[in-house]
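Listing 4. Sequential folding, example run.
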Amino acid sequence: MRIVGIAACLVLLFACHKPKDLAGRLPVEWVEELKGDYTFARLWDYPEGVYKNGHGQLSCDGFCPERADAMKDSTGRIYRDSLSAFYALVDTTHHFHSLQGEAQCDEYAGADYLVARRQHDTIVCYSLCNAATHCSLHLSITGNHCTAELKLQSIVDGNRQTYKGKNGFIRIDRSAWNQDTLRAEFDIEFEKDRFSGKHVSWKGKICTPVLNP
């Protein structure tokens, strides 16, 4: 009985002193060729706020620099002699989608973009928020492990939270990885919301180039 008691104490001691940086850490499942539909990566949008106006011109609303607004008449038409100056100020780049999926998180209404950057021996990833989505997926991949967090940058005072990954999986295409492309699928459950007790999760697919420093 005494031996069992000592063993139980040792297990408890280890659990209490478990390094915090292991929280949210998942093993990476490497796949030589990841199957599935990744055609979403062919879709693109203009930057948020950019649209085609009633005159067939690419314009912007709400996100326009002040100088750009002065180049439009009362109907929203961009003056012909101001077109070059307008597009020098307003970004009309085609942004290809790099993320597809769904999340259970407060203030989530969809996300299409994820950025992946190389930092030494680690690939750091984060999804981009938008006007309606304020929670962001964060992945840090080093070797055969991935640390997952979900960050809620709430517009509600006092409701900003960071959820650590609890369980789930991430599978990565090794051949794409070797060509500096992150092609992956994932399904991750995070800690519950500390206010509502709701489940928090995110699952989906990623297809994006890995940007070098």
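-- end of first protein; second protein begins --
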Amino acid sequence: MPQGTQATGMTFLRSLARVVLFLAIAVATIAAGWALLVEYPSSTREFLGIVALLALVPVCLRVASNIANSVAPSYNVAEVSVAGPISRSESGGPIGSAPIGAAADRLVDQIERADADSSVQALLVHLNTPGGEIVPSEDIKLAAERFEGPTIAYATDTCASGGYEIASGCDEIWARNGSIVGSIGVIGSRVNAADLADRLGIEYEQLTAGEFKDAGVPLKELEEEKREYLQGIVDDYYDQFVENVAARRELEPADVRDTEARVYLGEEAAEIGLVDELGTRDDVTDKLEEQLGKPVIVQRFQPQYGITDRLGRGSRRLAYAFGAGIASTFAGEDNRFKLR
């Protein structure tokens, strides 16, 4: 029987089993509640019993659903998606752009929920990111390393810098032929507005304690000693990145350094050991089926939002829509503002 047909059949049987088990538990619970709380002769007791029974119905339905899902789960592989620039927490983009980015705190929570889910036997980490902040990227990687079960990183368009850091924490890395992979390097930058400040007659004056406290302030020229200090921080981060990748990928640190933070297409990345396999997402799930010895059903784990989070996300969407409307008005042929 083809694997797709087999997986479909297994899904139908699991769904049927969950429905039957859910109904059996729900009916049994309601019947027991009715017998215990309603069938007594006291009218006051009967009234209270009905009220209590109505209050218990949602609870028993939830319990029945949880038991049914644990006994006959509808999935056995969890998928999380790292898409966009990586940062500590999600935030809205500038006016005229939608909220973007991969929030490390949310992603770590998704991986930990998948790890705690008894139905999940493997983890698929989808990557389409140019990288981002260093420590948040490492936090996601550490969460993937802690997952108890097979982990596969699957790159689509881009798996660079912090994205590759995350991928290196998985047991295997897959990519497409046209995927951009690598960029094992660190970048630090500062704006130098000292000349502009001079032309505008702005003087920089700041009270600090500690010689390097204001290193990198854009309104003054960067002194050589402070430049070396900032470069040293970048170099230290780079050393950590190289050592982490070399250890996880079983590569020589010198070979990782030889990449000089280049990016590679999937095939070349596989040749130098940055990628294990090339293939589509279907190829990845076929590999997981071999590892698990059973059909794979993938459940995508997504962020869980409370009421406050939902209200915040809603207001950000509204602000984005309003900003986009204003931007589109000024972007017309007769209303273009440009800096020359």
